[in-house]
Amino acid sequence: MKLLIKNGLVIDPVNKIKEVMDILVVESKISKLAKAIRIEVDTVINAKGRIVMPGIVDMHVHLREPGREDKETVASGTMAAAKGGVTALLAMPNTLPPIDSAKNVIFLRGIIRDSANVDVLISGAITKGRMGMELCDIAALKKEGVAAISDDGSSVDREGLMLEAFRKAKKEKTLVICHCEDKALSCQGVVNLGFTSTRLGLRGVSNESEYKRIERDINLAEKIGARLHIAHLSCKESVELIKRAKEKGISVTSETAPHYFSLTEERVLGYNTNMKVNPPLRSREDLEAIKQGLKEGTIDVIASDHAPHTENEKEIEFEHAEFGTIGLETALSAGITELVHTGLLSWSGLVEKMCSNPAKALGIDKGTLGLGRDADIIVVSPEKEWVVRKRDFLSRSRNSAFLGRKLKGVVDYTIFKGKIVYGMEFKRNSNP
Ligand code: DOR
Ligand code: ZN
């Protein structure tokens, strides 16, 4: 099978490419990048006026399988991924049961082998049952191929245990992803502490609950010399702490999610539970700090934190609704709309945050368009506008914080290992 992507603006910061050219894909690999490639192929994609970039590597996704297949499955989540331009993702371990043993990793691997539409990497848990009491057998998880460990959804409160986790993770050369939240400080809050919590009469979550835990985890990782990645940054003090840690040479990377650079706490004033996320939507000042963190490179990665929930779990009182928004199908467009079209990031900058930096953090050979690499490529219409509607989602859930918003940028084709896994019209057997 030969596929030719013609005349797109190819963006690949790793190989310092930003020019109009063609890409030839033979079987599953990138075989040639050049101007005006003339060759007989099976399929041609005319990418004129479009962006051609590496498939997105989304390192924070809740696929909910096993256990909550009513919210999402590996099959439905990876279809949603393909639609959003995501060709590799890291599945978070807060499933039922959690991915806290070799046996559970093997089980999930089987599901992925049978039903995934894009690459799915697995994050194991840090503690058994994600209870924060006893470490998982990290060596055994690693042996079965986990790409990282995380208790995402909660933080490991016991400092001694976390120190031990970093020690084991270092020994096993495994990335630790920290959901940074001190529950004693977030006080079962459901919205940002301050104006919003006061207006709504709801319990608030302080910035401290996030950044104090970031401070602790950076200190512990530094002590051990372990690698850590901080998930879903939401506030300005967190950005500042990570900036300082990086300046000190500590091996830390960080991520934010599109809702933290697109939406502020005012969005929850109508008690819209789709805006209920953990950490909560913050103030305008925090949002601006997150954007600056992205621009300056303190924040390395944009990940969706795709967190599907059923309507039953969302269409209830705000206090009782689940935390989370789906994001696989809107993350790229949110990035294009809020960061590229506003001039905050260049296209290459966005590709770094969504493709090459997460690939690097996970230590996988993805996120670039190098010769001989897997042909994981997306073709994007950068100016095309669309309105986020429930009916268009391929995810099994509909709980999007972006519902009703107009976004710019549409994925026209997603090519995964040389195959078009998402896309509309394409010509077969046409001559170049
Ligand atoms: O909003 C969130 N939803 N934040 C988390 O940390 C967990 C996630 C989930 O699993 O629903
Ligand atoms: Zn989390």
Largest sheet: 9 strands, mixed
Low-confidence stretches: 426-432
**CATH topology heading:** TIM Barrel
Helix content: 25-40%
Alpha carbon gap, first and last residue: 15 Å
Count the strands? 19
Tell me which oligomeric state these chains represent.
single chain
Q: With helices defined by DSSP (H or I, 4 residues minimum), what is the helix count?
A: 13
CATH class: Alpha Beta
Count the domains: 1
The CATH architecture comes to: Alpha-Beta Barrel
C-alpha Rg, in Å? 21 Å
**What ligands can be seen in this structure?**
(4S)-2,6-dioxohexahydropyrimidine-4-carboxylic acid, zinc ion
Q: What number is the mean pLDDT?
A: 97
The CATH superfamily is identified as: Metal-dependent hydrolases
How much of the sequence is in beta strands?
Answer: 15-25%
Structural class: alpha/beta
